[in-house]
């Protein structure tokens, strides 16, 4: 749904190539904060003022805005120029462009993603998991009024994995769909871990995208933008568009998931322990929370928690503190203890931050925060019988306190739950 507060009706400045009409669009009031303006520490001069219809790098014409963040805006674009020596992917009509801010930290993050992407691209491309990892295709810079902006080019995807969940009955993945999705993600993780020696560190629903079932979906998006242009806020030095990121119901079955966003990824084949802060709050592994060394198995923990995001309406351990009404580490640890039991002293002894929440005997300091009378099995309500039993055994191999006790992606691919279906009972 578009925002409803409009000031007036205008007309597009630059029609897209191939569009026959220039339909009116909705202009939003200036006092309404939209899109990237709502991000903390937003500074307009950090963002390049992309215009619909603008041609970037002489190769890509902007079709519509599809997303935004604190460090970039994201656009669907159409290739308009054949290269002298075209890359195989350049036969695709559409790409997704991430136009980064000119903020130094954001540029460093984007350059890091570019470096990781190049490393992944140089790894074994014959591994079946390569198809389930999206990396940067190419990059270029554009000049803005307040500095240059790095642009990253990606294969276009349909949507994040949480969006098709909303179309499913009860907003939950059925067991059969969950199995196929997890199997493909584990195949991608095995490729990253065993072939590329890369730890993603940020596995969450927003970073798992679904492939397009057909490129005609993007033709439909381009037509929709021409027929009903995106609402926008027009300012003196820029136009802020509302994102068009719902591509409608799929024309065929569920698309295949792809692991994306490598700006937080790190190489695992290093000689020193990895202890720097990683992972979003609800998905953070125990070792990362406690300040202990982490490695590839931290991604396995991430994926293990994400299973519940697809299976249920709520996260398994959101970590909302009953006193502070926001995420806290103590609330998150308490929820984990309630489900998995207390962490081993062996793990606590490695954690530089463990003393904040555990005493010298390994006792949790906030016992009253620990949920009582609930088990992991109680949180799985749409499976039953052998399927539920096998699922819980599968999940328990991922949700182990000790990182070294978690199964690898390769080991999990042969787990009985992924290969058991009711008709085989």
TrEMBL record:
Q: What's the superkingdom here?
A: Eukaryota
* Gene Ontology terms: biological process: regulation of mRNA processing; spliceosomal complex assembly
Give the enzyme's main class according to its UniProt record, as a single word.
transferase
- State the EC number(s): 2.7.11.1
Question: Which catalytic reaction applies to this protein?
Answer: L-seryl-[protein] + ATP = O-phospho-L-seryl-[protein] + ADP + H(+); L-threonyl-[protein] + ATP = O-phospho-L-threonyl-[protein] + ADP + H(+)
Q: Which GO terms describe its cellular component?
A: cytoplasm; nucleus
Single Gene Ontology MF annotation? ATP binding
Q: Which Pfam families match?
A: Pkinase
Keyword ATP-binding included in the entry's annotation: yes
Identify the keywords attached in UniProt to this record, alphabetized: ATP-binding, Kinase, Nucleotide-binding, Serine/threonine-protein kinase, Transferase
Keyword ATP-binding among UniProt keywords: yes
Question: What residue stretches are annotated with the Protein kinase domain?
Answer: 60-418
Full protein name: non-specific serine/threonine protein kinase
